[in-house]
Design goal:
It contains 18 helices and 6 strands. By secondary structure, the chain is mainly α. It has 3 domains: 24-114, Fumarase C, Chain B, domain 1, CATH 1.10.275; 119-155 and 174-215 and 228-361, Fumarase/aspartase (Central domain) (Fumarase C, Chain A, domain 2); 375-469, Ribonucleotide Reductase Protein R1, domain 1 (Orthogonal Bundle), CATH 1.10.40. It has a two-stranded antiparallel sheet with strand order 1-2. Strand 1 (159-164) and strand 2 (167-173) form a beta hairpin. Helix 7 packs antiparallel against helix 10. The longest helix has 37 residues, at 118-154. The two termini are 53 Å apart. The chain binds arginine. Arginine binds next to helix 6.
Length: 470
């Protein structure tokens, strides 16, 4: 094999001013078909819009336009069947499609390039791809939220320990804890929705960077493609990738949400916690230890976050300090975006299945929810309602805890005499504060863990979920 490409290879779009083709190593570095082939659908859609515009300005007659549109459809069918053949001489998806059109249509195939550049094509293709990706991910998030809503609904009334510093803090409803994820995920979906709205902007008609002289109308491309608006500046249009960074940021934050969930499932499934059992379909065995039941899926979910965060950092680093307008560095935008979105497309359905498969241990959760003096805050707040400054109440209850700890009992294990010896305000009525159900139901504000509050919260969670499911 020759170590140089012919300067006029059919798959290259720029041989004219060169006498020799690129060195094989240089070519290998620049060729992008292995990944930008995923943009075929968007590239063909842009080309169809372009054929219409070229007809409107008189570069293609009606017959040529129709022949072009029909060829683009045939090309799409090939891609659809995974039968489009890339040649080693194709530099990128744009060149490959043009090469194919010339093979198919002869000189007509060469007319499509008028007035456009791969710079505005790729800017358009990736935006369109990201738009669809956002829609997909939002719907997948909705499905995960639905799994949480269902679990929260099914376990309404069950008690669970609420933690800070991974130490038992206050009792909550298990459903309140589960619904926290619905709102985290809702913001993740919201970030994707925001990104989608800003990237819904057409860049075709920007040419290489300064627009074009043929009279092509940027608005017409937006109309053909069903894109909301037109980029107001051709330089910005071809140079900017902040839209991809926004999608990647939203993906990175989402993957971090999922990673926290993965960790919590791993933790709750340990024999130390034993709050939850992961369904068989989402658990794995060990090749050596026959008794093992491992939460591999939750661990993989946790682990994938590193990779998606890496995708964001990778593109941030590439774009930092790039001068306007287009630079070839920008070719590095695609793989991180494809990787992050592809990873989440894989992860989200697996998480949804895992969450739906969880079976909780009511007794273990209830026992843990009152352990560790979890009602101490309630006791302090009771003293506050009796007029004691919280600062003093904190001290008094601190002493109650110390005495209970010495005696090796929980708060409700102290008798009335012991309590009133610590402080006269600790009368028989405060014993009512040692009931977890009451502790939960007194927290009845709109954001609280009281049964009535959580029931209302469930309705809101259902509505938010439905909006994402679309
Ligand atoms: N493969 C290129 C990319 O992904 C397409 C644009 C190439 N433009 C250029 N002037 N070489 O960015």
């Amino acid at each position: 094999m020759s170590d140089q490409h012919d300067a006029t290879d059919a798959g290259r779009l720029w041989g004219g001013r060169f006498t020799a083709g690129p060195d094989a190593a240089a070519w290998a570095l620049g060729v992008s078909t292995s990944f930008d082939r995923h943009l075929w659908r968007q590239d063909l859609a842009g080309s169809a819009a372009h054929a219409h515009e070229l007809h409107r300005i008189g570069v293609l007659d009606a017959e040529e336009r129709d022949a072009m549109l029909a060829a683009l459809e045939r090309c799409a069918a090939l891609f659809e069947q995974d039968a489009f053949e890339f040649l080693p001489t194709d530099e990128d998806v744009h060149g490959a499609i043009e090469r194919w059109l010339v093979e198919e249509l002869g000189t007509l195939g060469g007319k499509l390039r008028a007035g456009r550049s791969r710079n505005d094509q790729i800017a358009s293709d990736l935006r369109l791809w990201c738009r669809d990706a956002c829609d997909d991910l939002i719907a997948l998030i909705g499905a995960l939220q639905a799994a949480f809503v269902e679990q929260a609904d099914a376990h309404l009334g069950w008690h669970a320990p609420g933690y800070t510093h991974l130490q038992r803090g206050q009792p909550v409803l298990l459903s309140h804890h589960l619904l926290a994820y619905v709102w985290m995920l809702d913001r993740d979906a919201g970030r994707l929705r925001d990104a989608r709205e800003r990237l819904d902007e057409s860049t075709l008609g920007s040419g290489a960077l300064a627009g074009q002289t043929l009279g092509l109308n940027p608005q017409a491309y937006a109309d053909h493609l069903g894109v909301a608006s037109v980029s107001p500046n051709s330089i910005d249009a071809v140079a900017s990738r902040d839209f991809a960074l926004e999608v990647l940021s939203a993906c990175a934050i989402l993957s971090v949400t999922l990673s926290r969930l993965g960790e919590e499932i791993v933790l709750w499934a340990t024999s130390e916690f034993a709050f939850v059992r992961v369904g068989d379909a989402y658990s794995t065995g060990s090749s050596i230890m026959p008794q093992k039941r491992n939460p591999d899926i939750a661990e993989l979910v946790r682990g994938k976050a590193g990779r998606v965060v890496g995708d964001l950092v990778s593109l941030l680093t590439t774009i930092k300090a790039l001068p306007l307008a287009y630079d070839r560095d920008l070719q590095e935008d695609k793989e991180p975006v494809f990787d992050a979105v592809g990873t989440l497309r894989l992860v989200l359905p697996a998480v949804t299945g895992t969450v739906a498969s969880l079976s909780f241990d009511r007794d273990r959760l209830a026992a843990a929810s009152v352990g560790g003096f979890a009602l101490a805050t309630d006791l302090a707040e009771e003293l506050v309602t009796r007029g004691m400054p919280f600062r003093d109440a904190h001290e008094v209850v601190g002493e109650v805890v110390r005495v209970a700890e010495e005696r090796g009992v929980d708060l409700d294990g102290l008798d009335p005499a012991e309590l009133s010896a610590i402080h006269p305000a600790l009368d028989a009525d405060v014993a009512a504060r040692f009931d977890p159900q009451q502790a939960i139901d007194r927290r009845d504000a709109v954001n609280g863990t009281a049964t009535a509050s959580v029931r209302a919260q469930l309705d809101r969670a259902r509505a938010a979920t439905a909006a994402n499911l679309g």
